Protein 1
Amino acid sequence: MQLRKNQTLERFHEFLKLENEIGNITRQEAVSMVPPLILDVHSNHFVLDMCAAPGSKTFQLLEIIHQSCKAGSLPDGMVMANDLDVQRCNLLIHQTKRMCTANLIVTNHEAQHFPGCRLNNGTMDSAQHISQLLFDRVLCDVPCSGDGTLRKAPDLWRKWNTGMGHGLHSLQVLIAMRGVSLLKIGGRMVYSTCSMNPIENEAVVAEILRRCGGSVELVDVSHELLQLVRRPGLKRWKVLDRRVWLGTYKDVPKSRRSVVHPSMFPSGRSFQNLFDSNHNVDMQNDINNGHNGDSEDGVQAMENLMTNEFAEEVSDFPLERCMRIVPHDQNTGAFFIAVLRKVSPMPPIQEKPKKGIAKKHVKPANLDIEDNEVLQVDSLENTRKDVLEAVSVADVNEIEPNIVDLRVRPSVSHEVWNSGEEAQEPDDAESIAKMTQGKRKLQIQGKWRGVDPVIFFKDEVIINSIKAFYGIDEQFPFKGHLISRNSDPNHVKRIYYVSKSVKDVLELNFSVGQQLKIASIGLKMFERQSSREGNSAPCSFRISSEGLPVVLPYITKQILHASPVDFKRLLQNKAVRFADFVDAKFSEKAANLMLGCCVVVLGKGNNKADLESCQVDESTIAIGCWKGRASLTVMVTATDCQELLERLLIRLDTEHGSSALVDRQSNVEDEGEYLKGKTNHVTNGSS
C-alpha cells in the first residue's frame, strides 16, 4: 500500500504492465525459469510442455527455439503446450499470443493420458513424415502442493498438510511416466515441482527409474548454470502420515495402505516384495487371512522377519543428481528439478493376471482437507494399472487411455491442485471399448465439445487473390500451411499460418482420427475486412499485425517506405490525408496504391536509397494500414501505436543525439519512464 501511494512508482508499474501486455517484458519467478534452461532445447526440437498453464515456461521455450532464426524465417522445431483445465488453457493462449509464433499448438488433455497419435504402418500415407508423436524434449512441471511458494503465497500456511503431497504422488508418477513414454530415444525430460516434499520429488523420480528398468537415466547437471546455488537431492527420507513418522512401508498400518504407497519410500519395497525376499509364503497367507497373533494388521509378524537394515531406508538410485533450490540460499522461491535421459526403449509391459479387483470411488477433495481426507488419485494396485495403460504404445489405436473419464481437476490456485470425483471404470477392455465407442466416433469426426474445428484452408480463389494483391513471392510456403477454425469456407473470418513442424503434426493428427484436442494453433495471418469500404477492395483479407513479421520479407506490392517524420505522424494521428504527408513522393505513392490493406515500413534514413530499401531484419519497424480513397489509417491498437512511437523516438535519439529529447513528453502522452535498452523486434502487437 505504501508503494502504491508513491506516484512515480505507480507510473513505473503501469509501464511494466504495458510492456508485459505488448510482449517486450515477461515477469516471472526466477527459479521457475530454471527448468526450460536446463532442458537443453535446440531450434529443431519438438518440445512438449505437459502441464503448461499459465504459460511463462512455454513462452521461454518458444523464445529459445526462435532465438537463432532470422527475420521472416521459422524454426524447424515446435512447442506443444498442454493443460487439463480449459480456463487455464485460455490463460496460456493469452500469454503465448504475445510471442506471435507459428510454431505452437495448445492442447487440452489430462497429462497422464496425453494421446500418442501412433499411426499404423499399413495405413501410413507416403507423404507422411512422422508416424508417431514423439518429442525431443519434455517439460514435466507437474501439479504439486506448492509449499515452495510459501513466501509469495502466505495463505498456504493455513491450508498445507501432509495429505496434499500423499494424494498427488500417484498422479505425479502417472504424468512423469507418460512423459517418458512420449520421449524419443536420446531425448531429455525435466521433472520439476515448486515443492520441497520428497514424496513429490525424489520418491517420484526413484519410482520412474524403478519402472523404466534402465531405459532412463538420471543426468548429472551440476556443471550447468554454475552461478545457480543448488543442493543435491535426498537419498533418504521418512514419510509423515497422521503425525507419525514412518521409516519403511512395513511400518504403515493396514488401514493406511491405500493412502501411503511403497513408492513413497526410498527403497520402493512393498509388503509383498519383503515377504517374497524372505521366501515365507505361508506366513504371508496367515497374515492376509488375519491370523497374525496380537497384531491387528500383521505389522508385528512382519517385524519379526525383518533385520535392522530396513529401519531407515536409503535409495539405490543416484538421487543426489537431482537439484533442490531453497529460498534462503539466494533469496528465491523453492524448487525441485530432476533431469532424465531416455537411453533405450522402455521395457515390455508385463501382463497382470486377471482377477476381480473392486474399484473404489474417490471422494471429492477441497483445499482445506484434513489428514484423514487425503487427496487420493487411486489405490496402489489401480495406479500401477493406469501407468501401464498410460505408457502403452502398442495399443494406442485400440483404446485410447485419454478417453476414459478419470478427471483430476485443478483448484483455484495455480500451485495447489485437487482431485475431482473419479468415475468408476469397467473391469475389462471390452466394457471400456463399449463405453468409449461414442466418444471415439466423435474423435474421428474431430468434434471435440466446445472446441472449434481445425481445418486446412484450401480455398484457391481466396489464396490466389491474397497472393496477387500483396505480390507475395512464390518462395513463401503457402500450400498446407494455412488453417481455419470454421467448417464453412464462405464464412471464414481468420486464416492462421503454421510452420512445417506444426503442419506435420496436424497431418498426423488427422490420420489418427484427431486424437489431439486443439485449443489454439498457429499464427493469425489474415483477417477478413468487414467494413463497407473493405467490401469494395480487390482483396477482402488484410494482413494481421501478428503475422506481418513472417510474411513481410516476401511482400512486393501494397508496401510503402516512410521517412521517420511521416511514420511518426501516422502513429500520432492514426489517420492522415495524403496531402498532409511531408514527403510528396510518399504521398503520391500512397495515393496510387489499390484500395485496401497496405504495409508501411519505417525507412532507415532520409535519403531516397534508404527509404526504398526492402531489407528486412530484426530492427525493422512496420505497421499495417488501410489505404482509403483520401487517406491512410493505421490498423493497430492504441497501445501498440503508443509503444511503436516510443521505439521510434528512441531510434531518433540514437541517430540524432540528445536534441530529440526536448519534445519527448509532448510526443509520448504521459508514458513515464522509458527503457533505453529495449530490444527492437518487428512489431508484434495484436490488432
Protein 2
Amino acid sequence: MSKNRDFVIRSHDRSVKYGIDSRQRTSKKMLDEREFDALIKSKQELVAVAEPFINQLYTFVKDSQFLVILTDEDGCILSVIGNEDMLQKAHSTYLIPGAYMGEEYIGTNGMGTSIIEGYPLQITGNEHILELLQGWTCSGAPIRDPEGRITGCIDLTGNIELVNSHTLGMVAAAATAIEKMLSLKRYSERIEADNMYIEGIINSLPSAIFTADLQGRVRHFNEFSYGMLGYERDEFIHIDCSRLIHGWPKIVERLSKKENILQEDVEVSLKANKNEVNLSAYPIFGSDGNTKEIVFVLKDVKKMRRLANKVTGSLAVYTFDKIIGESPTFLQTVAFAKKIADSKSTILLMGESGTGKEVFAQSIQNYSNRRDEPFVALNCGAIPKNLIESELFGYVGGAFTGAKSEGHPGKFEIADGGTLFLDEIGEMPYELQTRLLRVIEEGTVRRIGGNREIPVDVRIIAATNKNLKGEVEKGNFRKDLYYRLNVLPLRLPPLRERKEDIPLLIDYFMERKSRRLNKKKVNISASTMERLQNYDWPGNIRELENFVELIINTESIPGEMSPETIVKSAASETKKILSLAEVEELHIRSALEECSYNITRSAEILGISRNTLYRKLELYKIDVPK
C-alpha cells in the first residue's frame, strides 16, 4: 500500500479496536423516526444549504449509477439521492437516512473515515471492512463550518467498477462550495443558497442573485434575476452591470478593498425604467488574494415596505428615551428590555391595561438591530375571530369568497426581517394557536389556500393583560404555545407600584397636551399632587394621561377632593362645558395619539372611513406629524 493510502491502514486499526465484524450486516446505530426528525431539525441549516449543491452534483453523475449522500458530523446519514436501482441497492446495504456511517459503527468507509481523517478521501472495494460494502467505491469529503469545525460530510457512492479520481475531485469541490455558502450565510440570514461555481442552484430563491467580473460582465445568475430586472434570459446574459447598477465605480472600489456591502439601497436601470433595490455585494477572491468577481443579491424591499406602510403603518415610533420613569423597579424593567432587544427569541410583555405594553414593544424594536425593519402590530382582541387567520397568514387569490384576486400577504410576510407585535395574545382563537406555534418554530408561513411555504424572519413580541398560565390551566390557551412565547418574559409594573413617577408623568403629559391643544398648563398644588400619588390609578398610565387632558381642557382642578373624586369631577366638569364638536375633536386627537398618528388604524378605532377622518382633520385643523 502506497504512502498516500496510509489512512486506510489507520482506519483498519481503529475498526479492529471498535470490534467491527466483517460479516456485520447493518450499522450498529440506527435512529428511529422520532430521533431522526429531531436530528433533521437540529441540522436544518446544513440540509438547506447543501440541498441545491447535492442536486446539482447528482445531475453530473445520475447517468453513472452513483448515490449522493449527506451526513452530519457523526456520520449519520441525513439524505440520500439516486435513481431507483441505486436506491434499492442502498436500502439492501442499509445506506439509508438515520444510519450511522462512523467508523465505530460500520468500520472503514468513505464517510466515516473522511470525518475522522479530516480531509477528502476515497475508499474502494476491500478497503471497506464490511463485506457488505466491498462492492462499492465511496468518495467522501468533510464539510466545515465557518469556525473550522466539521459539521457534516458529502459523499459519492457507486459501483466499484466506477472508481475514478475525478469523483473525489467533484466531492471536494462540492464540499468547498457548501463551506463558502455557510460563510456567506453568516453575513445575511436572509440570503439563502448561493455559489458561483455551480450554475442554476439558486433558482428557487426570491431574490436576484448573480455574479459579475470587475468590468461588469455577468457570469452566473438565477432565474429570478432577469425577471425582477425586466429582461429576458438571453438579454440578461449580455447585461453590462456597470450600467445596470448606479454607482458601479464606488462599489468596485469598496469591494477591491475587501469590504462587504450589506443591504444598501441603490438605484438600478430596468429595461423600461429605473427602480430602487436593496443591494448586498460580496467579493470573490482569486488565488492572489485580490477581488476577481462580485456576488450580488438584490431585493425589491422598497415595494414590500411600501405595502407594509400602506396596510399597517409598520413603523416603530417610541424609543426608550421617550419613556418616563425613574423608580428603581421601572428602571430595572427598562434595563432588561434593552438587554434582550437584539434577541431573536420571543418576548412576552405582561402587565395590566394601560401600562404601556406597545410603547415598550416599539422601544425594543428601535433599540434592536431590527430598527430599520418593519414593526407590525396586530391586536388579537380587536379583530373578528374569522379574520385573524387571514390577517396573520395572508391568502392566495380566490381562497374564499371576498378574497382579492391577487391574494394578500399576511402580517408575518409584511413583518419579514422585523418584529410582529401580537397584542392581547390571550384573545387568539384556540384553533389558530397551533398554526401560530408552527410558524414560530419553523420560520415559514403558508397563505390560506396556498401550498407554498414562505420563509420569514420575524421576531415575535406578544403582550397580554391576562394570566396566561391560568388560561392554560383552564384550557383556553395551548400549553406548548405558552412556553414558546414565554421565552423572555417582561412584566411592566402598574402605576401604583411606581408612585414616585407620577409627578414626572403628569409634567410630561401636561407639557405635551397643552402644546397640542394650544391651552395653558394647570398648576397642581403639592397637597393635590400628594393625593394623586396616593391614588391607585386602576387604568394606569392611560388613565393618568386622560386625566391630564381633562384638567387642561377645564383649565382648573378641584383642590379639596380625593384623587378619585378629582378624576370624576374633572370628567364631569368637562362634559358640562365642552360642546359636541369639542368632544369629537378631543376624541379624534386621543385616537391619533393612541395609534401613533397612523391614519388607517385611527379610522378603524373611530369606526369611520379614512376619507371621513381626513375631512375631520381639516375641519379641526389637526396636524399629523410626517
